[in-house]
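Supplementary notes for students who missed Thursday's class. We covered one full example, reproduced here. Read the sequence, then the structure, then the short commentary at the end.
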Amino acid sequence: MPRLLLLLVGCVAVAALGVGAITYAHHDDAPGLGLIGFVLIFGAIGLGVRAVLRTKRRV
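Structure (token representation):
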């Protein structure tokens, strides 16, 4: 359980970084940074779902 919690905290941190990148990209008019922000957010969601599903399979 602590390993899952650590992974989920990391995923939330990466998603927060993505939100910050999108916010900065909107302010600075940088479409490439916005795309990187979206990739970070959806990648973090994917990794979080994968981590949860892997722990559910072991139980």
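Commentary. The chain has two helices and no strands. The chain has a mean pLDDT of 92. If anything here is unclear, bring it to office hours.
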